[in-house]
């Protein structure tokens, strides 16, 4: 059907490449591009020889002109951005300059501050509309599948959605004292930022990891979950009409949080530059360099993830609850594509989003989040490409009023 340029060569990109090659009827040619072309060449060597023709290229994704030249040389129908979130805008600019559709998995954030907002990318809406191009934002799992799950619930399960709790649980064990399951810099910036949730039209801020609950998740059991801010809250609060509250929760072990607190206390998680041996560095960049590469965790990680949406609202005038989720096994992911489940659950939806843009099912000019489109083809594709979803109409519920619960303790 067409050609895709995949920018990035980390763990998520590896999954995207594997899945594009599996889906060769849609992805007839791909080009893997990264600052470190040897990583791209290694993926090509591993997967070359099938129906999908694979190319590689070196590119600095911070440099729009370099991206433009690469797009012109390869001529893709879509660019799949699985590089760093800092590079979203330069790649979007390159797509506009060359007339190519755009897909990413995480919203733009400026390098100098941990600020997770869609405003910078939503500002491109008119430019993409005028160019007749589609920019699909956040086609990973969270954001991504969680938005599609919500759109599915809105279309098929509810007349009105009032409350959403997104729960991201990783019960995997990689055996290290401390490691992050995706890019350490992005992961730690996200966790150490203030929490936020949306309620009755307002954002309520909490201290980092201040709010904790215990939730019993299917197939992995009771886990400590902590309230974080996550970017899909912003888009879903805007796009789901009638919503009263939306929150995001993630699991962390006590061991993980203890190590993180020590690193934070000694300044290793800081993004403020310091002078070291005559040059300015961000401590978090040094920490990233000494931590295990998330792409190397695959052969060590055992256990499962469970990510889903607990939704409450009305159907036919009656209150209704609904839980839609995916359980993913780390070892099964590694056996299939050589990665752990965190990369797998992000890379598979990135391929699906790009496929739907390429085949026209999710194509309309402008800048869009996944919940803006018909969820049905995406939900079908999840079952086909390795992320089957499950549902419950009588789930365990989380307390809706955090403040009242806190005061009662």
From TrEMBL:
<dbReference type="InterPro" id="IPR036291">
    <property type="entry name" value="NAD(P)-bd_dom_sf"/>
</dbReference>
<dbReference type="InterPro" id="IPR005097">
    <property type="entry name" value="Sacchrp_dh_NADP-bd"/>
</dbReference>
<feature type="domain" description="Saccharopine dehydrogenase-like C-terminal">
    <location>
        <begin position="140"/>
        <end position="386"/>
    </location>
</feature>
<feature type="domain" description="Saccharopine dehydrogenase NADP binding">
    <location>
        <begin position="5"/>
        <end position="136"/>
    </location>
</feature>
<dbReference type="Pfam" id="PF16653">
    <property type="entry name" value="Sacchrp_dh_C"/>
</dbReference>
<dbReference type="InterPro" id="IPR032095">
    <property type="entry name" value="Sacchrp_dh-like_C"/>
</dbReference>
<dbReference type="Pfam" id="PF03435">
    <property type="entry name" value="Sacchrp_dh_NADP"/>
</dbReference>
<protein>
    <submittedName>
        <fullName>Saccharopine dehydrogenase</fullName>
    </submittedName>
</protein>
């Amino acid at each position: 059907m067409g050609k895709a340029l995949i920018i990035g060569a980390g763990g998520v990109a590896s999954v995207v490449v594997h899945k594009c090659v599996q889906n060769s009827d849609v992805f007839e040619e791909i080009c893997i591009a990264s600052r470190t072309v040897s990583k791209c060449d290694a993926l090509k060597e591993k997967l070359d020889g099938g129906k999908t023709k694979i190319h590689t290229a070196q590119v600095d994704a911070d440099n729009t002109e370099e991206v433009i030249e690469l797009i012109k040389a390869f001529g893709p129908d879509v660019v799949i951005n699985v590089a760093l979130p800092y590079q979203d805008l330069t790649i979007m600019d390159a797509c506009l300059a060359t007339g190519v559709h755009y897909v990413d998995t995480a919203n733009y954030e400026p390098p100098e501050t941990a600020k997770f907002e869609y405003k910078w990318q939503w500002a491109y809406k008119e430019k993409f509309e005028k160019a007749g191009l589609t920019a699909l934002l956040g086609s990973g799992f969270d954001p991504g599948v969680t938005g599609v799950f919500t759109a599915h619930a809105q279309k098929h399960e509810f007349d009105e959605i009032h409350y959403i709790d997104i729960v991201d649980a990783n019960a995997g064990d990689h055996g290290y004292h401390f490691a992050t399951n995706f890019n350490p810099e992005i992961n730690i910036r996200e966790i150490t930022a203030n929490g936020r949730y949306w309620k009755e039209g307002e954002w309520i801020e909490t201290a980092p990891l201040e709010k904790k609950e215990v939730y019993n998740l299917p197939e992995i059991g009771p886990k400590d979950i902590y309230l974080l801010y996550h970017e899909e809250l912003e888009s879903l609060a805007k796009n789901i009409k009638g919503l009263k509250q939306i929150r995001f929760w993630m699991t962390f072990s006590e061991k993980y949080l203890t190590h993180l607190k020590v690193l934070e206390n000694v300044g290793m998680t800081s993004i403020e530059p310091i002078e070291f041996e005559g040059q300015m560095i961000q401590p978090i960049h040094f920490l990233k360099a000494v931590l295990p590469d998330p792409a190397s965790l695959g052969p060590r990680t055992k256990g499962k993830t469970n990510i889903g949406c607990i939704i409450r609202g009305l159907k036919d005038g009656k209150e209704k609850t609904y839980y839609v989720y995916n359980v993913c096994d780390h070892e099964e992911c590694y056996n299939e594509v050589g990665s752990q489940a965190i990369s797998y659950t992000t890379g598979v939806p990135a391929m699906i989003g790009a496929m739907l843009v390429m085949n026209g099912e999710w194509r309309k000019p402008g800048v869009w989040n996944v919940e803006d489109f018909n969820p049905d083809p995406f939900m079908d594709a999840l079952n086909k490409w390795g992320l089957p979803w499950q549902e419950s109409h009588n789930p365990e519920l989380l307390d809706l009023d955090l403040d009242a619960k806190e005061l009662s303790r």
